[in-house]
Each structure stands twice: as C-alpha cells, then as structure tokens.
C-alpha cells in the first residue's frame, strides 16, 4: 500500500507491546498490515513484531530503539506510547521515588517517544501519535495520585501536539481505557475489582482487544480528522469526564 492510499503498511512503534493491552495493540496493527516494533525492557515481542529492548525512562535507550526500529521498518509513522506502571498508595504515604517512577515512565517516557517520533512524522507530513491514558486521568482514583496525574498530563500533551503539529498531517490522541483485565489489574484485591465492576455501566471488565481496536482505528487513515481527543474504552465508567 502507498502512504497516500494509506490503508496499511506503515512503520509503527508500540511501547509496552510485549504484554497486556500493548500486545493486543501490536496484534491489531499487524493485522492491519503495519510493520510493528515493540519496545519493552526485556525486548520480547508478540509473534510477527520486532522486539526491541528499551526502558522508556532512559533517553539514550529510546533513541537507540527508534534507530533500530527505523533501520528495520523505515521512518516511524505510527507511535503508540503505551508503557505504564502503577505505584499505588495514599498520598500521605507516597514518597518521591513512587511519584518519580510513575511520572518518568508514564509521562516522560511518552514525551521522549513522541518527540523522537514526531521528527519523521513532520518530515513525512503524516503521523499518528496515540497515548494510552486511563479513565482515572480525568475521573480520579484514591491511592493513585501519581498515576492519575501522569495520565491526565497525557491529555495536555496530546492537545498541545495537536495545536503544534496538527497542520502537518499528524494527529495526537489519548485512548482512555477503563478497567481492563491484564496483569496490571490482576494484582488488585477481589473486593476492589468487585467495587469497580458494580460501578461500570457495562457491568463487566473490558478486554484488551477492545482497547486495541480503538487504537488501530486512530492509527488508520480514516481517523485523520480526529485529534486532541480522549476516547474512552471503559464501558461507560468515566462518562462525562
Ligand atoms: P501491563 O502491566 O500488562 O503492561 C505494562 C507494559 O508497560 C508492559 O509491556 C511493560 O513492559 C511496559 N513498561 C513498564 N515500564 C516500562 C519501561 N520503563 N520501559 C518500557 N516499557 C515499560 O499493563 P497493561 O497492559 O494493563 O497496561 C498498558 C497501558 O494501559 C499502561 O499505560 C496502563 O497504565 C494503561 N491502562 C491499563 C488499564 C487496565 O485496566 N489494565 C486501564 C487504563 C490504562 P516490561 O515490564 O516488559 O518492560
């Protein structure tokens, strides 16, 4: 496919593509015919994707990983900044290290990747930047001051990118999952999961493919006029936020 026909065959990077939501995003982009590189600390990747070891908290590793991805797949056209961690605790107990780790991974890691990816996108005058945010970025969540602040900040980043480079064919959006069944949520106590489930209008937790389908759409040519948006995939949990 050519870029202007643009249905498929683009160079894509997914951070945190080795497992959970990221692995489903990798699979969805591969199914759309894209060439996909997955960044994670271990460098493992789902079948069909190029696995590259990259800790997004390290600027030099991000630069090296982009270089490797571009050598294999060409200039990056689609970035899904999906790596994320939690370090949950109540604010009175939250220390600087817990704040810094979450910010450095979820927010600064996304910034580093978006900055590096926009270079080739601006040159090509085509790009898709998608941040994995979270319903709690706008809804809030007790015990997640660091995490929700990091996810809320992605909204500001996507909107500023939209205003900064939106006229050059680059879109920047946030997909905001609600409660999705992955390793990240598996560690939560049963009563917390039951409490969430009771408050989700859909009456169930989400699955990774539901998030991935939304991301794949935003990465497509069809989504060229959607930018600066926060798209919830949360069964209605965060409605109105
Ligand atoms: P997982 O814990 O399964 O996956 C987290 C991913 O982030 C892994 O691939 C991990 O790779 C990667 N990662 C973590 N730290 C780094 C780092 N320093 N450098 C590079 N990669 C890193 O969680 P999910 O799949 O659930 O989460 C994916 C995204 O979705 C996250 O941003 C999360 O905040 C968000 N999200 C999840 C929700 C849910 O309910 N599950 C709800 C809302 C948002 P590795 O450890 O191998 O480096």
UniProtKB/TrEMBL annotation:
Gene3D superfamilies: NAD(P)-binding Rossmann-like Domain (3.40.50.720)
One Pfam family recorded for the sequence: adh_short_C2
Entry keywords, A to Z: Oxidoreductase
Protein name: 3-oxoacyl-[acyl-carrier-protein] reductase FabG
Keyword Oxidoreductase (UniProt): yes
GO molecular function: 3-oxoacyl-[acyl-carrier-protein] reductase (NADPH) activity
Domain Ketoreductase: 10-183
Organism whose genome encodes this protein: Micropruina glycogenica
Enzyme class at the top of the EC tree: oxidoreductase
Superkingdom of source: Bacteria
Protein EC: 1.1.1.100
